[in-house]
Amino acid sequence: MIRVIYRWSVDPERGGEFAAAWREVTRCIQQGCPDARGSVVLKSQIDANVYLAVARWDGIDAWRDSREAEDIVPAPLVERMRAAAGGPAGYEIFDELPDWALH
Hints:
103 residues, alpha+beta, Alpha-Beta Plaits, four-stranded antiparallel sheet, 3 helices, monooxygenase activity, monooxygenase, Antibiotic biosynthesis monooxygenase, oxidoreductase, Dimeric_a/b-barrel
């Protein structure tokens, strides 16, 4: 399992537009990628321009395949999200380690 953490700098006046586009993109990914395990978008309380998203995937290959498949997320929707964010996201990929929390 991996987590992909995306980071955007979004004009605060376009935050709602960005969040709405992110929801639509996520819906498309969930419908088209069985190895996508959901995501959450976060807005910084310290810097109103900073948005993060954390997406969970079964593995790196599934994530890469989704990025190369042009039919999963319509290009106009990707462009709408990028326009609201002022450009593409930076991202970093992490391996998910076992959860050792006691339940």
